[in-house]
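dumping this here before i forget
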Amino acid sequence: MKQQYDIVVIGAGHAGCEAALAAARLGCRTALLVMNADTIAALSCNPAVGGLAKGHLVKEIDALGGEMARNIDATAIQFRQLNTSKGPAVRSSRAQADRLRYRLRMKTVLENQENLEIRQTTADRLLFDHGRICGIETSLGEKLNAPAVIITTGTFFNGLIHIGLKQFPAGRLGDPSSLALPRHLKELGLSMGRMKTGTPPRLDGGSIDFTALQTQFGDNPPQLFSFANVGKCPELPQLPCHVTYTSAAAHEIIRAGCDRSPMFTGIIQGVGARYCPSVEDKIMRFPDKDRHQIFLEPEGLDTVEIYPNGLSTSLPFDIQVAMLRAIKGLDRVRIIRPGYAIEYDYVDPLELQPWLECKKIPGLFLAGQINGTSGYEEAAAQGLMAGINAVRLGRRQEPLVLDRSQAYIGVLIDDLVTKGTREPYRLFTSRAEYRLLLREDNADFRLCAIGREIGLLDNQRYAVFSRKQAIMTQLRQYLEHTTLRPQPSLDLNLAAYQSAPLRQKISLAELLKRPELNIAAVLELAAADGKPLMAAGIQGGNDTWQKQREWQEVELEIKYAGYIARQKEQVQRFRKLEAVILPEGLRHSSMPGLSREVVEKLETVQPRTLGQAARIAGITPAAIAVLQIHLKRGVGTILPFPPNATSQISPASPANPANPANSANSVDSTNSANSANSKRHPSREYQPQ
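structure:
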């Protein structure tokens, strides 16, 4: 049987779901392949979305037109803001999900998406025609033809589960691993490695003494993820989590069981996540710590299962039971599912272009843990970008590449394709040079226009963004143009806020820069001084939560204006290097002055811009200077980079930007100021071995 599609997506985890939805919504006939249709969008590890830096990714996915934010908003049972005591750049959102409802809702969205077919099958190999991908072949011999294939297989490539000294093949507990396709990719010459991750045991909540534990409630009012849902209430009842700690007795049990741990007996060969260690790893690496925090998180409204966040382990089952029962509140606990470690194959992300297409195999895109990342959010972000760019490949349009100054998605992908990774990659706010510009609260301002241009953001959601933009613009203009003069009554009101008297006329915006004043206080001072509050979006200090959020964003922009201006200057310098394009096929070995190590690194990564070359690990400023000299002698191209550029795609036709198919087709790839920054070479072909 031969069946024709525009795009085939292999794997229906978080990357696969976003990739398939993006492709189908942009008008492409898409097939989504999954081993088990009942596990689509499964939260394989923790039942939560977001977290430090990960919340930024979820909001960026939402601004571009992805689904993850809306899915968690509809299925969350607790919302929390993290790092609220710190600066705005590092504040992040996190939500506990009802594990079952999250999966079922995403499955429903996929099943009802036009242009998308879900197929329960296993992909075994890629098909080629004259050196280019033309589809895939399944384990049943079925051929699905498509000019673009996206692989998003998570931990399923040669997955091997470890529980103590016992091992068995699986992509996830209860699901088989994929064996034929990773073997096929190795035969095609892709550089691959081995990684490891793990998950805690799942506990029976009925066997836990919650009365002995600290209760942790969610935020009130909760802040939902999607910009279109700001001000709305959660759809599901909200549940608390509970906090407990490991004990000295538990640590002794763990140490005594390490001789049967696959981690400490050399059985596990894959590299584990540095920032999410197993509990036995924490005990052995930090012997001075007498306890480690554990969050007991409910898995849903209709189940007793509890996820003990912080207790990832691959210890034998009997050790897991003994360890748990030495922890406060868990002395009679029952395990429903054991914790385990899983090893799996991944592809070196240096094999990829910045738009996630394989350099060696045009038409093949990779997204998610197959690229060496960890986390649902990192996977979903890659899946969305891979889906968008697979569509643009088929339509001979320039790929969408977000740079490091535009989005955390840009930071994530640039880190992968420029530096590679030898351990599971996790995104942090510290990885972003311009994180004050890449805050959670302004993700819609940064990316909604791009989502609109490419055709993923519909009229209704874009209207929500436009309304917010209008209110914030009006409020900011009011603050900048309304002034107060020194007078006794105003000084008295300022004293109530423990703020100094005025010495001269001042705008409300300047007054707002005082740390003791917030925007509500400034508006009240203006009202008391007889200044009219000119717009419905500004009137009153006890407005709706949505308007308060808009006020907070304006306040933040004003209070941090100096720092923001400084980072924008840094971005301009960054973009000057990004505007220097290195030609395709540049032979670095022919350039005098470059060391053998530098040449090897440049040949491996094949940077597209001078800026990307400068970010390669081990590339010195001296090497960049040598490259600049050769470029000035006529090697390479230097193109102007618009100082106010927000996207690396051409503007969409205004005729019908809400129509995904029309909008995507309307992009004029020959008229992009940054088209060279996204240069594609479709003539390059791959000859399978």
